[in-house]
Amino acid sequence: MLKVVAATAVMVWIAVAGTAQAYMCETLFATADQRLKEAEDTITAETDVRIKQKLAEAKGLLESAKIGHRQATERHTGAIGKYSHGDAVRQARWAETLATEVIFLSTGATR
Questions:
Q1: Is 20 helix (H, G, I), strand (E, B) or coil?
Q2: Which is it for the CA torsion 51, 56, 35, 91, positive or negative?
Q3: How many domains does the chain have?
């Protein structure tokens, strides 16, 4: 009986965690947007061009993530919808990571 209860608890936890991840796109986009704005504020005329390129790459990734998410034809289900959603999440996280790197390279401040 204890095994059945434990197995049920694990399945419920997995289902809840999966649902939470499936609908966190807008939060990820907002977080990445905020980090990009912080990174833009660190850029000056004297900033190394490689740092500016990282910022441009981060902006492009986030825009691509938003477009891909909007174009998902099925609402986070089915083969195409799940792939589009997963790709958008990955790109948003990567854009935020690049923006964090820009902040570090520009100012030395860690996030």
A1: helix
A2: negative
A3: 1
Write out the chain's pLDDT in tens, 111 residues: 555 445 555 454 444 444 445 568 889 999 999 999 999 999 999 999 999 999 999 999 999 999 888 877 556 667 777 778 888 899 999 999 999 999 999 998 887
**Does residue 83 lie in a domain region?**
yes
Enclosing domain of residue 58: 25-107
Domain-embedded: residue 71:
yes
In a domain, 4, yes or no: no
Is the overall model pTM greater than 0.70, yes or no?
yes
The two structure tokens encoding residue 32: 């990445």
Question: Is 45 part of a structural domain of the chain?
Answer: yes
- In our burial notation (b when 16+ CB lie closer than 10 A, e otherwise), range 30-44 reads ebbbebbebbeebee
